[in-house]
Design goal:
This protein has 240 residues and is α+β, with helices and mostly antiparallel strands. 27% of the residues lie in helices and 36% in strands. Bound molecules: biotin. The site of biotin (BTN) has 20 residues, from helix 1, strand 3, strand 6 and strand 7.
Length: 240
């Protein structure tokens, strides 16, 4: 993937701008970075607080030639890249909450929003990543500045992250199971955690039992049966 970084001062949402550019024909690897977003988007219609200089706000255009069942592994690969960056560059000990929130000490430091769109050149995935450099005034949030002893420089983070996302994206195309394995090695949510999953049909409680080949979360229910969660919010419950 040939990465090109386009920097903006203020923008509504880097995901929106990347989608606009993808619809206009921009190729894979174009990365939109902004100093601030006026309408940063989170998952499930939530907003993402994006004040000037407070974080990394970026979106990469991907044009995956993957089997559709593996598309959701793109966000898991991005979570692995953020995890490794925090661990290796900032000596932070993160965790990954299924599917792709990166946490430190139970508080969120990074969120990932991937959106699939149709363009005249076929399907594109807009991979948006927000990493807190300063802690936003939000419950359960933290930042690199709060967790690391090194200063965090936005442009360096962008370059390291985009390079690693490109590497893992290539790996995903060749070996999807490797991404699932990397995610499972890094996440305390992968195995043996008692969780509640909020589904449109109601809440389900169970013990996590790894991911399936598409990155869906397997849960062992109280009656011993297994169910698979493809989307939704998962919360840790106290062990019984
Ligand atoms: C989440 O809800 O956890 C996902 C948050 C994703 C935020 C990033 S910031 C850069 C990109 N542009 C957006 O509008 N959202 C994503």
């Amino acid at each position: 993937m040939d990465v090109r970084i386009l920097r903006y001062d203020t923008i509504d949402s880097t995901n929106n701008e990347a989608a606009k550019q993808a619809r206009g024909g921009a190729g894979e690897g174009l990365c939109i970075v902004a100093d601030e977003q006026s309408s940063g988007k989170g998952r499930q219609g939530r907003m993402w607080v994006s004040e000037r200089g407070s974080g990394v706000f970026l979106s990469i255009i991907l044009r995956p030639r993957l089997e559709a069942k593996y598309l959701s592994l793109i966000t898991l690969a991005a979570a692995v890249a953020v995890y490794d960056l925090l661990r290796d560059r900032f000596l932070i000990q993160p965790d990954i909450k299924w599917p792709n929130d990166v946490l430190v000490g139970g508080k969120k430091i990074c969120g990932i929003l991937a959106e699939a769109i149709e363009t005249r050149d076929g399907l594109a995935v807009i991979l948006g990543v927000g990493i807190n450099i300063r802690t936003p005034e939000q419950e359960n949030a933290t930042s690199i500045t709060a967790e690391a002893t090194f200063a965090a420089e936005r442009d360096e983070i962008v370059e390291l992250l985009v390079e690693d996302v490109a590497r893992l994206y290539k790996r995903l195309a060749a070996d999807p199971a490797a991404i699932v394995a990397m995610w499972q090695e890094r996440s305390s949510f992968a195995h043996g955690m008692r969780v509640k999953a909020a589904l449109p049909t109601g809440d389900v409680e169970g013990i996590t039992s790894g991911l399936d080949e598409n990155g869906a979360l397997r849960l062992k229910l109280r009656d011993g049966s297994l169910t698979t969660i493809h989307a939704g919010d998962v919360t840790q419950l106290r062990p019984m």
